[in-house]
Amino acid sequence: MIHLWPPLLLVAILFGTGLYGVLARRNAVLVLVGVELMLAAAGLLFVTFGSTIRDTARAGHVLTIFLITIAAAEIAVALAVILAVYRSRGDIDVTVAGEDDL
Known about the structure:
By secondary structure, the protein is an all-alpha fold. Helix content is 75%, strand content 0%. Helix 1 (5-24) packs antiparallel against helix 2 and helix 2 (28-52) packs antiparallel against helix 3.
């Protein structure tokens, strides 16, 4: 049986790094990388608690598979939006909002 503190420490580090990437970055692609780090932390948390709790349905592992599927769809849509904004505006700075963007 595994101890809980190493995976939970890794989850905290991953989530903190992702949160910093979302809050401190101006580039839309780097913000997206931060969101992906936070989703990876959530997946690791699901697997950690799914492994420690005796569940016959393996809910933690199943939720992680759903999370990976949702993250893949999210990255595809977000990159398409970022590419469309870059083609129309010429930059992907998330702090700049033009009147024509609304």
